[in-house]
Structures are given as C-alpha cells and as structure tokens.
Design a protein that fits this description.
It is built from six helices and eight strands.
C-alpha cells in the first residue's frame, strides 16, 4: 500500500469542520438527509456541478468534472446528505452507499459536489464530516469506514478533510466482498484517474 498523504490529526480536522459548519449555518444554509423527492435534483447537481472548468485552488472544497459524472445517476441503495440555502436552492450533495465488510460498516462516497455559486465555503468538507449521521438516522452505529476514490487533482482537498490518500492505481487495505468494482463503476470519478481515500469515523 503506497500512501500519497497520511491522515491528519482528528482534533485539527474537527475544529476546522466545526468552524466552517457554523459559518454556513449562520449564513442560513441547512443540512438534511437526501430524501426520495430530491434524488433526481441531487443527481442533476452532481452532473452539472462537476462540469465546471476545474477546482478553485484557494477554496476548501474544489470540484472538478470527471467524465463519469456526465452519466451519473443515483442507485436505489444510495443515501446521502444535501445542503440548501435559505431560499431552498440546492447548494451541495454527498451521495453514499453503505456496505458491510469484515470489520463492520463502510460508507462509500459515490459522489460529492458543490454548486458553482456556493464553492470555496467549505460545504464539501462539512458534508464529509456529517456523513456518519446517515447511519445514525437509520438507527445504526455511526462508527464506520468512510471511503471512496477521487481524481488525483483532488487528493489535496481529501487529505485536508482528514483522509489517508493512496497513490494513483494503488489498492486499499480492505475489501467489500468483491463489490468494489461495481461501486467504482457507478461512482462519479473517472475510471482512469482514481486515488482511494479512507478514514475511520464515528
């Protein structure tokens, strides 16, 4: 296993998350579970938001379009979180699939996107930090492995969000009963440009 970036100290990541989350709430943004009536809107945001010119290097939550995003749809088993402004405009979305593996439960990040008009405010980072709440709302333990794959250009962002990031093409030290290929095939990350990331959350 070749590590591109090691994980950061949880306290530093948590403090940054709380600071950005509070600023977003103060600005009137709300975070909620992804519900049935919002699924197509969320998928459309993933397709549209990842169709931008590239990341904002000064912002905490850059987004870049992988080619796989153009055909992105939500699967029946997907869950996630959305964030909206005071007018109800969808500002960001995190799409997750919960899977079981040898050590417990894992949340696989199928997509993470911020609408262009809301970038550089920490929305994507806060969504990742809130991911365990999806399990809590389902009455399950919030302790899980949060993982996914991202383009190499976004590994710095994922690292700052507290994840261990592996080098391009390297395989993670865990397996999901052979369904990894299926999860990757339906994610919003281009198959030829993937770096695994992961961390334990609670």
């Amino acid at each position: 296993m070749a590590i591109l970036f090691p994980g950061l100290h949880n306290d530093a990541v948590r403090k940054r998350h709380v600071r950005w989350a509070q600023a977003l709430v103060d600005d009137g943004l709300t975070f909620d579970l992804l519900v049935d009536e919002g699924r197509e809107e969320a998928a459309a945001l993933v397709r549209d938001a990842l169709d931008g010119a590239g990341p904002d290097p000064a912002g905490p939550d850059p987004a870049e379009r992988p080619s796989a995003a153009a055909a992105f749809t939500l699967e029946p088993q997907d869950t996630g979180l959305v964030v909206r402004d005071a007018a109800g405009t969808l500002a960001g979305v995190l799409v997750l699939t919960a899977v079981s593996y040898d050590n417990g439960t894992a949340l696989f990040v199928r997509a993470l996107a911020t609408a262009p008009g809301f970038r550089s405010r920490g929305i994507a980072t806060v969504l990742l930090g809130l991911a365990p709440q999806v399990l809590g709302q389902a009455g399950l333990s919030t302790r899980a492995l949060l993982t996914g794959a991202c383009p190499e250009s976004l590994t710095g962002f994922v690292h700052r969000a507290g994840f261990v990031v592996l080098e391009h093409g390297d395989e993670p030290p865990f397996a999901f009963s052979g369904i990894e290929d299926g999860l990757l095939a339906t994610s919003a990350t281009d198959p030829g440009d993937r770096c695994w990331f992961f961390k334990e959350v609670a």
